[in-house]
Design brief:
Blueprint lengths: L1 H14 L10 E6 L2 E6 L6 E8 L17 E10 L6 E8 L1 H5 L11 E2 L5 H13 L6 H8 L4 E2 L3
Parallel strand pairs: 5-6
Antiparallel strand pairs: 1-2, 3-4, 4-5, 5-7
Length: 154
């Protein structure tokens, strides 16, 4: 009886252990004595507040002449989930061919790749990218977003 009680205590203490993660929300952690599933609750989530095309006033009517060779810029307002305020970010959504054909290759491409370019998937791609940002503060979220987007304050 005593051994089952001590093993129960050990299992409880293991479930409270911390498994180091960079930005995952759910993971499976293991060590020599066993394993457990960990769900991480982060302090904040970010979301897309608005999205507009920088290239055309009629995004709904716009059709790319060559869907395999497109680079299209967007303004995306992003903020903390549940709040109205947000900051503006500029993001390029491009195909690999358009990235390869850039004239200024001194800097690496910073944006999102959609190959082939499908208008119906652009908004979903951007929303998914933003919603997958895992941060505990707004500054951390901005730092991650700046890997693929230009921030209005940079």
């Amino acid at each position: 009886m005593r051994s089952s009680r001590s093993s129960r205590r050990t299992d409880q203490s293991r479930s409270n252990s911390i498994c180091p993660l960079s930005a995952a929300r759910k993971t499976h952690c293991s060590w020599l004595g066993g394993s457990f599933d960990a769900i991480w609750v982060l302090a904040m989530r970010v979301e897309v507040k608005s999205l507009s095309s920088n290239e055309t006033l009629d995004w709904n009517g716009w059709i790319p002449s060559d869907p395999s060779n497109v680079m299209h810029w967007f303004t995306v307002r992003i903020g903390s989930a549940g709040q109205q305020a947000g900051d503006d970010f500029q993001v390029a959504v491009a195909t690999r061919q358009a990235i390869d054909q850039r004239t200024d290759k001194r800097r690496p491409f910073r944006g999102l790749i959609l190959d082939p370019f499908e208008k119906a998937k652009v908004e979903l791609l951007i929303q998914s990218h933003v919603e997958n940002i895992a941060a505990s503060t707004w500054d951390e979220a901005v730092k991650q977003l700046r890997n693929t987007m230009n921030w209005e304050y940079e």
